[in-house]
Amino acid sequence: MTHEAFRGVFPYLVSPIDEHGGVRETVLARLVNDLIDAGVHGLTPLGSTGEFAYLNREQRRRIVQVVVEAARGRVPVVAGVAATTISDAVEQVKAYDALGASGILGILEAYFPIAEDGVVSYFSAMAGATALPVVLYTNPQFQRSDLTLPAIERLAKLPNIRYLKDASSDTGRLLSIINAVGDRIRVFSASAHIPACVMLIGGVGWMAGPACVVPRQSVQLYDLCHAARWDDAMRLQRKLWRMNRVFAKYNLAACIKGGLELQGYDVGAPLPPQTPPSDAGRAEVRDVLAALGALEPAGATG
Predict the structure, then answer these.
(1) pLDDT tens, 99-142?
(2) CB count, 10 Å around CB of 192?
(3) What's the whole-number mean pLDDT along residues 223-249?
(4) 242 phi/psi in degrees, rounded to 5
(5) How far apart are CA 262 and CA 213, in angstroms?
(6) Strand arrangement of the beta sheet that strand 134-138 belongs to
(7) What Rg, from alpha-carbon coordinates, does the chain have?
(8) How far apart are the first and last CA of the chain?
(9) Are 215 and 300 in contact (CB under 8 A)?
């Protein structure tokens, strides 16, 4: 499935894995259907919340396949590709393209720092391996070698690098990116930003894990921003921000999986060596979801 433009709320999906290493396909497909019913605009398997760093090749491939098949072309599926080598990244891109993904989220993993030319070569090779739209992922807080503004400007010249997901906390940096390439690359925010702020300065939506557990509220926030109802949007944003504070306090994937378990999705524990949320963390996640009216599954219409 292809789309003229990606926009709106793209939940970063969890990766439900059973004790034998198999993908919990039924619960993943159910989550996909419920999120689509809740109004999300797209789905992103194998993002940070999807614990891509803890999965093997076959697990990653199967997760993308299950999500694409469950989505049935109703919304775009933008599959995360993360690697330390260009050859591995290209192989993943080709595999997910063949499985029917609508786009690729490009993530660079690095042990040693990589110079700008190497970073550009990595993402250029990904873009050259597919005709699908590519979303660049930039997160200077966690990535060993991040995308600099000059690198982004160079990559923006490639025809299918059309989006960027920015997970920094520097709005000035984001404004610099938008000013430099805003006519060629559309910007998605992450939960590290206040999404309403990013929409105000020119963003087109957000890709984030919390939207898995509060999809309806996330879509409502997007709709308010899209309608330029900024006062109403900020009232809702302030309510939702408490969730981001909890996720920053504890492990992100553990909190999202814990929240989904509270909603009745048997997604299992975070993948080792990560640990499940503590009793205190689980209680905080429950309190936040209860305050937001989100203790029911995403598909519940209540």
Answers:
(1) 999 999 999 998 888 999 999 999 999 999 999 999 999 887 76
(2) 18
(3) 93
(4) -60, -35
(5) 10
(6) 8-11, 205-208, 186-189, 161-166, 134-138, 103-108, 78-83
(7) 18
(8) 31
(9) no
pTM: 0.95
> What is the average per-residue pLDDT within 150-179?
92
CA atoms of 147 and 137, how far apart (whole Å): 8
Percentage of the residues of the chain whose pLDDT score is greater than 90? 80
- Torsional class of 21: left (φ above 0), alpha (ψ -120 to 50), beta (otherwise): left
Length of the chain: 302
- Closest C-alpha among 213, 223, 212, 162 to residue 188: 162
Alpha-carbon distance values, 221 to 8, 11, 216, 238 (Å) = 10, 14, 9, 11
Residue 246 CA: distances (Å) to CA of 6, 64, 184, 255: 28, 28, 35, 8
- CA angle, corner 188, sides to 149 and 112, nearest 5? 45
> What domains can you pick out in the chain, each with its CATH number?
8-230 (3.20.20.70)
Q: Which of the four pLDDT bands, split at 50, 70 and 90, describes residue 296?
A: confident
Q: Say how far apart CA 92 and CA 82 lie, in whole Å.
A: 8
Q: pLDDT grade, residue 170 (50/70/90)? A: confident
